[in-house]
Design a protein that fits this description.
Blueprint (H helix, E strand, L loop, with lengths): L5 H4 L5 E5 L4 H5 L2 H8 L2 E4 L3 H10 L4 H9 L4 H19 L1 H6 L6 E5 L8 H15 L4 E6 L4 H10 L4 E6 L2 H20 L9 E6 L1 H13 L12 H17 L2 H7 L7 E5 L22 E5 L1 H10 L12 H11 L4 H35 L1
């Protein structure tokens, strides 16, 4: 019998659903557990904006903040205590999924400070510190896919850290990320260390691509440019998936897989629809395929549960993806430039809530301590 919940039916096409949301009360009240049981949620991602809302606007942390203040903990130590506790709770709620899937799913992701995105050495140090601090086998450390992040991805993988590579906006950078992951595994094998427990995802951001490209298409003097609106993100993602298929079909990957390596899945991020003219599940339906993860905020998850229609569509219109990017070039839209701009903007979107969280936490500490 076909499962009535479209979210659960995605699994038969090889796609896992991860929730792009975390909050202490959401986990402690058992709401995450309900989603795991009824909506087939198989992972959780977090980001600085999510933590800002939870810490700055709620009162659930007050007791722990007050205790940290009494213990004389610094602002950064208090932040670590709150965030790590939340990540551990979510990881424990997902532990059964992790074990049942043999370590393929059941992960919760935690970001390194976005201020370190251009600093390889400090990203490696912080990634290792957080991985050890959380002390759960089903935690992933999020590292931005900046040029400086690439060697950090390789080195963290070689150290046995599960890495979620974030802020991916181009096919070319995705290929570099996949290479960094494989290089890390090869380095670990050369050191005679096991690689069969290491997992990784490459998070390709979607709606942000269309938001920027659509704005440029609207500014074009040529009326025909408008016909390309809303196509750049899906086209880029499908081309990235095509490269993924060629990577896992290569001799290099076959050698790693023979030693127990796990495939680095593409994860579709930024799946909430920003343009109200587009479907609220626009960034879910077209990218259903094997070895992928779709990470959904609460409202997108609810929308897909209500009217999703799962089918493997990632290979649909195989020529269209290349045609779209070629057409964009004719309208002087350079996707490399788009990706660079989105990367910078994405880092700002992480830094601002991260700093705002620390500021709000500092004010809360002062208030509770007095």
């Amino acid at each position: 019998m076909t499962h009535p919940n479209p979210l659960c039916r995605l699994r038969q096409f090889g796609q896992s659903v991860w929730l792009d949301f975390i909050e202490r009360g959401f986990v402690s009240r058992g709401e995450l557990a309900k989603m795991i049981a009824h909506d087939c949620v198989r992972g959780v991602t977090s980001n600085p904006a999510i933590f800002h809302k939870a810490i700055a606007e709620g009162s659930e942390y007050d007791e722990e903040i007050a205790a940290a203040a009494r213990a004389g903990l610094s602002l950064s130590e208090t932040y670590d205590r709150l965030v790590v506790s939340d990540i551990q709770m979510a990881a424990d709620a997902l532990r059964s999924i992790y074990e049942e899937s043999g370590g393929a799913d059941g992960f919760v992701s935690l970001e390194v400070s976005p201020h370190l995105a251009r600093d390889t050495e400090r990203t490696v140090t912080e990634g290792l510190r957080l991985f050890r601090l959380v002390d759960r086998p089903n935690v992933m450390i999020k590292v931005p896919a900046t040029l400086e992040g690439l060697p950090a991805i390789r080195r963290l993988t070689a150290e046995g850290v599960n890495v979620n590579i974030t802020l991916l906006f181009s096919v070319e950078r995705y290929v570099a990320v996949a290479d960094a992951y494989m290089s890390g595994l090869e380095q670990r094998l050369a050191a005679k260390q096991p690689i069969d427990h290491i997992a990784s995802v490459a998070s390709f951001f979607l709606s942000r691509i269309d938001t920027l490209v659509d704005r440029r298409l609207d500014a074009s003097r040529e009326e025909s440019a408008r016909s390309l609106k809303g196509e750049a993100a899906i086209a880029s993602a499908r081309l990235a998936y095509r490269r993924y298929e060629s990577i896992v079909d290569s001799e290099r990957w076959a050698a790693l897989e023979g030693q127990g390596a796990r495939r680095q899945r593409l994860l579709w991020a930024s799946t909430s629809t920003k343009n109200p003219e587009y479907s609220d599940i626009k960034y879910v339906e077209p990218l259903i395929g094997r070895d992928t993860v779709t990470t959904l905020p609460l409202e997108t998850l609810a929308a897909y549960k209500d009217h999703g229609n799962p089918a493997e569509r990632i290979h649909d219109e195989p020529e269209r993806a290349s045609e779209v990017l070629a057409s964009l070039r004719r309208f002087s839209i350079d996707m490399h430039q788009v990706a660079a701009e989105l990367e910078e903007d994405g880092l700002k979107k992480f830094i601002e809530p991260f700093d705002a969280t620390l500021k709000a936490l500092g004010e809360r500490i002062h208030k509770l301590a007095s």
